[in-house]
Write the C-alpha cells for this entry.
Amino acid sequence: MLQPGTQAPDFTLINHKRERVTLSSLRGQKVVLAFFPAAFTGVCQKELCAFRDALADLNALNATVLGISVDAPFSNAAFAEKNGVNFPILSDYAREATRAYDVALDDFAGMPGYTASKRAVFVVNAEGAIAWAWEGPNPGVEPDYAAVKSAVEAA
C-alpha cells in the first residue's frame, strides 16, 4: 500500500455513468479514494452508504469522494442506484489503479485468478500527494470514518 507523502498515481477510470474521471483533473481539491472489494456485498454497502451520508461534510472541506472497485460500470450503476450513492463509483475493471495503489486482493473469496481491490482509503491533498492511507486487515473491516474526516481536515 502506498504511504503518505507519496505522489498519488494518476488514473483515468469509467464512472457508473460510463464517463471518464481522471484523478489529476481534481487537483486543487482534496480527494477521498475509497477502494472496495465488490458491489452488492454487505460491508461494501455499509461503507459506501457511510460515505454517502458524510458527503456534505466532506464536500464542505473541499473534498471529493470517489469509490473504486473492479466491478463493471453497469454493476456499479445498479449498486449506486439501489443505495442512493451520490458520488462517482469508478470501475477499475483492468485493475490498473488497484495495482498502482498496491491494494490488489488476489484470489478474492477463494476464487483463483480473480483479483478484487482490498478495502482501503486514501486521502489525496490538493497538490496530488497522499496525505493519509488506511488498508483494512481483511475485507470485513470498515474504515474509521472519523479518522478519514480528520485526515481530510488536516490535508
